Predict the structure.
Amino acid sequence: MKIKKILVSQPKPADLEKSPYGDLAKRYNLNIDFYKFIKIVGVQAREFRKERINILDHTAIIFTSRNAVDHFFRVCKDMRIEVPDTMKYFCISEATAFYLQKYVQYRKRKIFYGKQSFEQLMELIKKHKDEKYLLPCSEIHKKSISDQLNKNKIAYSKAVLYRTLASDLAEVDIANYDMLIFFSPSGVKSLFKNFPEFKQNSTLIAAFGPTTAKAIAESGLNLDIKAPTKTAPSMTMAIDQYIQKSNKKK
């Protein structure tokens, strides 16, 4: 089938023309739309108090996303908690670590970061086993993170500070797209919450990450394109390779 319209379950890039999706659209004359399939809602301070977690009992924070950073400092502000200068921060990536500058004086803090995966960050955490860690997260988070912390006998508390909810996609004509692209299990759940009668038929499904691919399989959908792979570290590269391969068959 010829791919003409693609739906990406993420916000539209600030500068679409200069983004990888913009390049893809020009190269293959594609119409690419962007819709947020999920929305993040913060847990209120009064609700967080019910978890009976004292933030100041911890000596280090594990940040796996910018959302975790934002909602950690939001809750601290709402609860009038002053985070001490001695607090250590362990971030999933350099980009997340730099994002901390929004809330703290970067050069004056003890900040550690991995390259992108939690496995890499875990190596740093193991070198600081005496810390008591706080893991800010949503109610939907990777079980593998807790598994690794438990396996390595790391003292930590899990704090649910935000929730992932399905967006309202009433204005989307889902049957009008040749390809749907997902980046999280929550996005897949949002598809069926908004379109409970959805049938894949000839629609191509693309997924980024193993947990997203697993959610697609568990939903009874066929996965046509997956990333990252050795030859396609990004979603746009995976789509590019798929289109090239399809064109060669014609």
The chain has two domains: 5-37+177-249, 41-164.
